[in-house]
Amino acid sequence: MIELKDASKAYPNGVHALNHIDLRIDPGEFVYVIGPTGSGKSTLIKLLNGEEVADSGTVTVNGTNVGALKHRKVPKYRRNIGCIFQDYRLLPRLTVYENIAFALEVTGTPSKQIRQRVREVLELVDLKDKERAYPDELSGGQQQRVTIGRAIANRPSILIADEPTGNLDPNMSLEIIELLEKINQTQGTTIVMVTHDRELVDRFRKRTIMLDKGYIVHDSSKGGYKSL
Ligand code: ADP
Ligand code: ADP
């Protein structure tokens, strides 16, 4: 479970990026976070993955008080949170298979389990036939599917997607949202997706949280821009 209680964050330049945020996201939810540029979406994500610490209030994820984590405990904490971004951030000299395997190697997974898990993940993201390809040989949608595979390889309970369809055409965006829905439904992964994509938000209705100037201005379980 994700819980923010009266969480605020200002940057050293005096910008109040988030103000008195109260928010609870239950395990297995799929939530959109929307709002204009500068409204605090990235800062919210950074509070969740421990990149930034709230100045006041608390951020609790699966029982861990994220702001109170010791530096050396942050990497282990982050294993439970998969992240994907608008730019794919794949390792260009590694194949699809190796990119996913790498995520498992860095967490010390035994090699036999790595082979098994990479096969499962390739199946889930439907890229079995591309395992030997390099990122630059893939379409944007396929590359994003690799990053999703890499992000879920260690079975995180939460997947954070920061504008995952930002660089994709509508058809590929559709593919990505359907894959995220499949992961949400079959793996029970909580999904927090930051997006500007009105079409997706209106078509694939999910709980939708709108930020503006660092405040939650809407939180609608019905979803869609029209219901806000
Ligand atoms: P969004 O993701 O919705 O665009 P951000 O969380 O990136 O919003 O930014 C919220 C506000 O905080 C903006 O005014 C932004 O300029 C400011 N901000 C974000 N990161 C920093 C930073 N590292 N230092 C100073 N100001 C920042
Ligand atoms: P996004 O498009 O994901 O909302 P932004 O363009 O707002 O991202 O910000 C990109 C990065 O720059 C983020 O890591 C954010 O924290 C940082 N950033 C945003 N505004 C500022 C700022 N005024 N000073 C320093 N860093 C900033």
Number of helices: 7
Strand portion: 25-35%
* Most strands sheet: 6 strands, mixed
Approximate shape? globular
Low-confidence region ranges: none
Q: Structural class of the secondary structure composition?
A: alpha/beta
Strand order of the largest sheet: 6-7-8-3-9-10
Q: What Rg is obtained from the alpha carbons, in whole angstroms?
A: 17 Å
- The ordered H/E elements are EEEHEEHEHHHEHEHEE
Please estimate the helix content: 25-40%
Instruction: Give the overall pLDDT as a whole number.
Output: 95
Number of strands: 10
Q: Which molecules are bound besides the chains? A: adenosine-5'-diphosphate
Termini separation: 24 Å
Account of the 3D structure:
This protein is of the alpha/beta class. The chain has a domain at 89-155. The protein contains 7 helices and 10 strands. The strands form 2 sheets. The protein has a 6-stranded mixed beta sheet with strand order 6-7-8-3-9-10, sandwiched between helices. Strand 9 and strand 10 form a beta hairpin. Helix 3 (96-105) packs across helix 4 (111-124). It is globular and about 45 Å long. It binds adenosine-5'-diphosphate (ADP) (2 copies). One adenosine-5'-diphosphate binds at residues 11, 13, 15, 17, 35, 37-43. Residues 11, 13, 15, 17, 35, 37-43 line the site of one adenosine-5'-diphosphate.
